[in-house]
Prior knowledge:
- It is a single chain.
- The protein is mainly alpha-helical.
- It contains five helices and no strands.
- The model has no long low-confidence stretch (mean pLDDT 83).
Amino acid sequence: LTTPVPPITDFFAMAEAPHLQDQPAEVLKQDDMWQRQQQKTFTAWVNSHLRKRSLKVEDVQKDLSDGKLLLHLMEIVGDASLPKPARGNMRIHKIQNVGHAFQFIA
């Protein structure tokens, strides 16, 4: 006898918030609202700094993922000079950009 496998989306939900796995729908809704509010607040904070260079993000997760705007943000917040972002759009260029930002943080 085998147990049914839950849909893959359930695995992702459990991985993101395992503590909410058995919570009522109301708690899950509140957590979702809290996450959206946090993301909106962080996006506004990022934009308040990037505005100094006439830059803007719409979706923090997507727009910072290539490392280009992340490097700009690190320079502004850290008041430092970092390497220029790699020009290409290949995965290796994105990894280089994010790597430079991480090196600065460390």
